Each structure stands twice: as C-alpha cells, then as structure tokens.
Amino acid sequence: MLLENIALGKTMEIYVDRDGYRYRLVSKVEKTGVKKICLTAIMAGGRAFKFRPEDKIRLVYRSEDQMWEWLNVKAGLAMLDDEPVHYFEIVNKGQSFNRRQAYRVNIDADVEIGFYQVPGNRQRLSYVPLVKEEYEAFVDGNGVELEREEDDRSGKVFIEKRLRMVPMKEAEERKIRGFVHDISETGMGFYSNELLEIENSFYTRIPSDYGPLQVRCSIVRVDDHPKGNRRFRYYYGCIYEESDQKLIRYIYDVQRRQIQKQRDRREFEASVREIRRERNK
C-alpha cells in the first residue's frame, strides 16, 4: 500500500507506545506523499498533541476489508494552508494484516467498569471532562508565567487574566460491574447489565500475572441478546484507546499456556488410544 494512494479525508489510526502505555489516536488525511502523510492536527485540551522523539509510533489504515500498517514512524507538527497538521514520515514500506488475526484469549474475569458522566448527558467518558477556567497569573516582563510573585528577579511582575483547563466539577464518576470474556492486542469483549452505547468510553483494570493492567476503551459493538453468558443482558465489543504495554505480554503468556494445554491433551489422548490398542491385541 502506497501512502500517495490514500484518498484525502480518509481515517487513519495512530498507535503510540509511551512510558509503558499504548495510546490510540484517530485523525483524517489532509495530504499524502511518497514518504510523508499529513493528518488533521490531533488536539487535546485545546492544544496540539505533542509527539516525543522516543515515542514508538505505528500508523494503521483500513482499505475495505484489508488493513495496512506502517511501523517506526516519525511524527511532528507543521502548518498546511495556515492550519496546523500532524505529519508522519515513514521509514519502512507499509505491510498488510488482518485485525481478525490478532490472537484473542479468554480470561472470563469479573471487573469494575468506571466512567465519567455529565448530569443530563448520556455520553460516558473514560477521562473526567475538562472545562476552561479563568484565573489570575503572575507573569514576568516576557509574559512567562511564574509560580509565585517572588520567583521573578527583574522586579517586573504583572498580573494577567488567563485560561486553563480544569476538571469539570459537575462530572460524576460511576462504577458498574462487568465480566471480561476475552482480550486481544487491540480490544476486548465484556458483559454487563448496564446499557451502554457505541462510542461510550470507560476505564477498567484487567487482572493478570503482572498485576491489574489499566485500559481505557471505546465501545464499537453492542449485542443485547448475548448467548455466551446468561447472567448479563448486554455484550460489548471494544477497542483500546489506551492500554498497558504489559497487556500484550500477558496475552502471549496465556496463549502459550493454552497451546501447551492443548498439546498435553492431544498427547494424553494419543497415549490412551495406544494403551487401548495394546489391550485389544
């Protein structure tokens, strides 16, 4: 898959590994080239997301039923037609993969699902929502904000009205019971008696051999007639917005144990058949 063949306006997924966590970001294509692609600037709290040099970045693009990925991508912020964009420079040629091939393992674990909700709003959020707050800031002659008025040595301290993002006081944190059926590198499936909606997001901790692993998820599928568990009314399919990097290691550990268990079972059944053949001689 060539970058220049991707149509403008298409959606790209950006996976960022940072400080032991994996983050999933989404944006739209603004410009393409042979080795570079520009996406609509990814904003958080009114500011553009800042990629770090040490970030491990992966781009993912869906073309009909096929998925394409670019590994070890370099990112930065630039201007395109007087508008901010994030650009991504590729190092290696894109390769195809199928999201369904991501190995899923069953863990069947009770968990606590948490989310934030604004009164009167049905949307659930994995982070407490932020709002703008005006405050008085001490600044020096260059407009640099000071923590305290005494921190300035020039003797020129001014007070300015500024805005900052603070947690919304009205937001309520709620926690509900959930039951995680399976997990994969990209998402998980869980049951609950709470009615949630597509694009609702939440946080939870997945029990593992490495301790509880925190993930933040967005719901992409809802089934109100689940067949696998009669204790719950709803089944949800989710994708990770943020996940602990040890989660992938845990999935591989469970996968190895399950494969070994299957191998042991086959060997035991083969031994039983051999014993029966010997007895019937």
Automatic annotation (TrEMBL):
Segments forming domain PilZ:
171-252
Q: Which domain of life is it from?
A: Bacteria
The protein's matches in InterPro entries, at most eight in alphabetical order, are given as: PilZ_domain
Q: Which Pfam families match?
A: PilZ
Q: What is this protein called?
A: PilZ domain-containing protein
